[in-house]
Amino acid sequence: MPRNSPDLSSAYALDGADASRRLYAEWAETYDITFAADMAFLIPGHVRDLCARHGARGPVLDIGAGTGLVGEALAAEGIGPVDAIDLSPEMLEVARAKGVYRALHAADVTRPLDLPGGYATLVSSGTFTHGHVGPDALPHLLEAAAPGALFILSINAEHFAAHGFDTALDALPVTDLMFEDRPIYGAGAKGDHAGDLTRMTIFRRA
């Protein structure tokens, strides 16, 4: 990979929406190979498995859908329809080509969202992490959810602790809150973050 190509370290160092847009515009075409495959990215599979376990049903909102890795995983389980939301139009164009989404929305989830609402399931794979999205997005996402909607969010475990997700969740109208810590990357992953954990955060909108 060229020395200045986007990578996990540059993603974790992001500061603000404009920096994210620039990075992912450049990374979109190679993301599935230079990140997801090279790092054996496991979270889309975790989301799929938890959706099956907890009886997820559509419509589903894939938060920070990126190139559509979660959409592909859910389509394989017959869970849908699925809509995608992501900050990067370029990443969404890659996702669109996979044909697994009903609709795609380019938007910043840390701001009020112009979405149809009424989602029965809301999922996320890697958006709540260093340099990306904190707990300030949660109220906006709850507004897009139907009463009783299932949330399955991957939150980087260090990010979870550093940004007070526990306190934020306690203040929101959610029920049935539970956590599972799982590896983010599989065998063969290399680098300083190869052993990082995600805190799979499962709850329902009250």
From TrEMBL:
Taxonomic source organism: Pseudaestuariivita atlantica
Q: What is this protein called?
A: Methyltransferase domain-containing protein
Q: Where is the Methyltransferase domain?
A: 60-144
Which GO molecular function entries does the Swiss-Prot or TrEMBL record give? polyprenyldihydroxybenzoate methyltransferase activity
For this protein, the record's Pfam families field holds: Methyltransf_25
Classification via InterPro entries: Methyltransf_25, SAM-dependent_MTases_sf
**Gene3D superfamilies annotated for this entry?**
Vaccinia Virus protein VP39
